[in-house]
Amino acid sequence: QKKYKRPITGKCLTSITEIKTSIRSHCLPVISARIERKTQRTAKKWSAGVSALPSRPLQECELPHALEPPQWVLGLPGPEHPCPLTPEVRWGRCGAARASRQSRKGARAGTEHGCVLGGGGRAGRRGEPPGFAQGAGIRQQLPGSRVRGSCPGGGPRQGASSARPASHLGSLGRAQNVKQLYALVCETQRYSAVLDAVIANAGLLRAEKKLRPHLAKVLVYDLLLGKGFRGRGGRWKPLLERHQARLKAELARLKVRQGVSRNEDLLEVGSKPGSASQVPRFVRVNILKTCAEDAIDYFKRQGFSYQGRASSLNDIRALKGKCFLLDPLLPELLVFPAQTDLHNHPLYQAGHLILQDKASCLPAMLLAPPPGSHVIDACAAPGNKTSHLAALLKNQGKIFAFDQDAKRLASMATLLARAGVSCCELAEQDFLAVSPSDQRYCQVQYILLDPSCSGSGMPSRQLEEPKSCTPSPERLRALAAFQQRALSHALTFPALRRLVYSTCSVCQEENEDVVRAALQQSPGAFRLAPVLPSWPHRGLSAFPGAEHCLRASPETTLTGGFFIAVLERVEEPSSGSQAKAAASELTPSPAPKGKKRRRKAAAAPGT
């Protein structure tokens, strides 16, 4: 009654049933009428935008994804939301009013929980289903309107109203500034230990009880190490300005204690340029759809400068700006500076390019299955190595890919379809449960085994937790036991000729120790193949022959941390050669010639 300024009834209601009946008869028609008017206005905007399109047929690349209106605008029940044109809409007991309150509540919750990096926006409006205004990672643009930003990470956007920005970053949460937001988060993470020390010594969190630790870290980085607020800051700007002198003094004291003069020198070894944070951007050209020459020409037309094939790691370290190189080892691998972002590049979205680290490209290259072969990818998801195998096979042959996770397998199927892979058979199955005697795998001669590992060599893991990259001993033992079982099981396939074992771990327990245990279980059947003799980083000296294994690291190879071992079956002598050798041993020596026999016979009577 207070909400809609209309008396519900003239008499006193005494029962709950009468109250509910009166609300249904008076309030719901008002709500439905408002929803219908809102829907009609929105539909008019869509029709006006569609009529303004050019009369010529649009090319596929020109069709915007937001051209089709949402299902609820057309009055159709969509896959996610029911049709909101009827009183049966269940956004809550009070329909759209409840949805609007939930949106405002979500905005306040997002501000309180640190989701303030998303910039200004609007809360959900009446007549829109929950999630439309927030975006849920997908932004749809009405003709004549501008796109609102969304919180990075693909989650629901929970920003405050546009009249009062919820973030000190201003417009950084919008789509066009997502690169700046990404850079801010990455740089804050790099200086995490430094910022923690400065904030603790300055007593910032003790003085400001409402300031969250993660938000304080971003704000202090922007104030001391970044470009400053520069007109941004909102309600946090005066708070930080009150402590600015103390924070700067603590940063200066920290430099004096460390004996350094630059902010960069305060970084730990794992976060300094040239290590995990400065691994270049490697891009593999998908030869199922294009070739390296065409990809290079495309980048050159976009303003990139091609520097030719790299001759050393120093050439890669010197990459800056819009320059790129061709990798000296892999002919289809392009190298860009570390800050290059190609996730929105049309060639990547069309499957012509695959963002894959160089170390991750080595297993398929070293396995080298010829076209027409049968290959097993034992732990296949997310699918980059599988697509590389298909490219080497030229889609001729068969790849059996196994993984237990249904969600990862579904995303892998999408990746392979985008890459044009047609020779792969996916199976949601544990590789340890696959029978080597199954007739489907009787022709499998090549196996790529990249089992679950600690991930201690991944650059992102090193940046997130530079002090705790090494997992606990208990977890290492459990992972190593699984990896050893998987490797021993893979070596039992009867037709196997070559196997590549790889991990993105730098721990000896998951690498050299696993390979040594597997070789000891099948003595004389397999050996470590000597590969890439010029590779600078070799395996640890854990057992004789471990130098044939390969290791990779940001410091020595400018890649992520990786381990690779190539095992090949020891060739046994063929049955034909064995029969010839046995016959030669059993055959008696030839008889002496006739002259010698006659001489012996003539000399015999005289003796």
Automatic annotation (TrEMBL):
Q: Where in the cell is it found?
A: Nucleus, Nucleolus
Which organism is the protein's source? Bos indicus x Bos taurus (Hybrid cattle)
The protein, known as: 28S rRNA (cytosine-C(5))-methyltransferase
Family membership: Belongs to the class I-like SAM-binding methyltransferase superfamily. RsmB/NOP family.
Q: Which UniProt keywords apply?
A: Acetylation, Methyltransferase, Nucleus, Phosphoprotein, RNA-binding, rRNA processing, S-adenosyl-L-methionine, Transferase
Ubl conjugation is among the record's keywords: no
Which positions are catalytic residues? Answer: C504 (nucleophile)
Recall the GO molecular function terms of this protein's record: RNA binding; rRNA (cytosine-C5-)-methyltransferase activity
Which gene is transcribed and translated to give this protein?
NSUN5
Q: Which residues bind S-adenosyl-L-methionine?
A: C379, A380, A381, P382, G383, N384, K385, D403, D430, D450
Entry's Gene Ontology BP terms: cerebral cortex development; cognition; corpus callosum development; oligodendrocyte development; positive regulation of translation; regulation of myelination; rRNA base methylation
Give the CC-aspect GO terms.
Answer: nucleolus; nucleoplasm
Superkingdom as given in the UniProt entry: Eukaryota
Q: Where is this region: Disordered?
A: 101-168, 574-607
Question: Pfam families attached here?
Answer: Methyltr_RsmB-F, NSUN5_fdxn-like, NSUN5_N
Major site of localization recorded for this protein: nucleus
